[in-house]
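Async update (no meeting this week)

Hi team, since we skipped the sync, here's where things stand on the single-chain job. The sequence we agreed to prioritize is pasted below, unchanged from the tracker. I ran it this morning and attached the output directly underneath so nobody has to dig for it. Comments welcome in thread, and please keep replies under the output.
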Amino acid sequence: MRNFIKYIILLINELIITQLHKRNKKRFLSGEIHPIVGYSTDYIGIVTTVAGRYEQYTLENLFQLFCQNNRKSITALDIGANIGNHSMFFSEHFKHVLAFEPNPLNYELLQINIRGKSNISAFNFGLSNKNERVKFRWHPCNLAGGHVAKYTENQQFLESMMTKENAPIIKDNSFELKRFDDCDFPKSSIDNVSLIKIDVEKHEYSVLQGMVNFFSHNSPIIAFEQHPTEINNGSSEVLEFLRSNGYSKFYEINNLPIGRPYKRIEKLSNKRYLMIAALP
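Output:
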């Protein structure tokens, strides 16, 4: 009986895989998506295999907001690029994309995924408010959740995964972080940054602190993630930093294909925001 059930599950899996392959093949041939390599045990890798692109509707809705605010699509920064999912989307709409990813496992696949994308430049370091090497922790089944070791909430989350799933031990690595203001980028590309996406697992505020000089001369749209533990009395360190640098409009980006693509928010609720977009 057990073998029969396994056989039925195998048949169902084959049917699902066949249909997904047909759909993604059609989308690839039409130019809607591009091949992307991911780890089969990692959540983002699985989603890109099944859906063709991770956070497809979030990205489309963000770009709709971008276009409706008459921004020039010249340069985008992808801070926390992971395996390049967002960078590849941005490369279809911007002349230049700068992608930052400190985890060597993610960076290796990022380099593979952007082959042939001459308008994407990848950097194997993270951004922060200091130039230093720091201890990072990550889980083999959640590479996107890698974080600077000081963030205890992230550590507790990874430990709960390990306990519940009997997964391999959490990995420790030393990654390089740099202040954006100290990096030597071509002035022509930095002066034309019109969009910044930051997803660095509660390190967003430190990233912004390392860009103070940049924000004194630039006001791109900024898309970022917020966790409940970062929110206090309807605001956060990230929002307060942005407000002090001239940002006054904040939108929650919808991650679904139904409903409004984005909505204005005045105060943050005590929940996780997958993406908030800030405009001056």
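Quick observations from my side:
Residues 151-155 have pLDDT under 50 and may be disordered.
The first strand starts at residue 75 and ends at 79.
Reply here if anything looks off.
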